[in-house]
Amino acid sequence: MADPKGFLTTPRELPKRRPVDVRIKDWKEVYQEQEFSQLQKQAGRCMDCGIPFCHQGCPLGNLIPEWNDLIWRGEKAEAIDRLHATNNFPEFTGRLCPAPCETACVVAINSDAVTIKQVELKTIEEAFKDNRVTPLVPDRISGKTVAVIGSGPAGLAAAQQLLELVIPLQFMNGLTKLVDCFVMESQSLKWKNLSLIEE
Fold it and tell me: Which of 87-96, 156-165, 184-193 has the lowest mean pLDDT?
């Protein structure tokens, strides 16, 4: 558990937004840099609530109290490992997700919610800065090949999961001919042939 009294003693605080007239001139972040010590205080607001409803609020089932506690303790390497346990791309979700986990946060019942989204984003940014994010290269391949249609966030997440199962893949961003690909059945791990035909 993070700071036992953090949610009582530390108010919710997000980084300040950069002025609009400055932001429209570049593609940099909307928010100003946040000191890691400030992030630790915000992560320390996560309380030992018994049943962490943030897990149900998060579509990915992120282990939010666990990585909040690790960030509060300054254990960045362990925090990014816990974050990657359920989230393929926190660099996307930390920016784009509307953070339903914060709405589900127990602290939000009678106070401001924990800044879960900001802790997630800063955790992955710190990991990139410390060179803790590296390619996951399989040590062997299965001999099967899977075609992943689309290379957006969902396609990339599917690719990462398939690579963990030592299955090589090929990305396709449009069907122009008959494609044979293999689809893994989730329960039995058997393969079936699926033909996709151009319409």
Answer: 184-193
CB 76 within 8 A of CB 132: yes
Shared domain check, 69 and 21: yes
Q: Is residue 96 located within the same domain as residue 186?
A: no
Q: Residue 148 belongs to what H/E stretch?
A: strand 146-149
Q: Whole-model pTM? A: 0.77
Model pLDDT for residues 84-142, shown as the tens digit of each residue = 999 888 988 888 899 999 999 999 999 999 999 999 999 999 999 999 988 777 777 77
Rounded CA-CA distance 59/185 in Å is 22
As a whole number, mean pLDDT of residues 38-59 equals: 91
| Number of domains the chain contains | 2
For residues 113 and 171, state if they share a domain.
no
Strands (E), the chain: 146-149, 169-172, 179-184, 191-196
Q: Which residues contact 56 (CB under 8 A, 6 or more apart)?
A: 104
Full domain range(s) for residue 53 = 6-129
End-to-end CA distance of the chain: 54
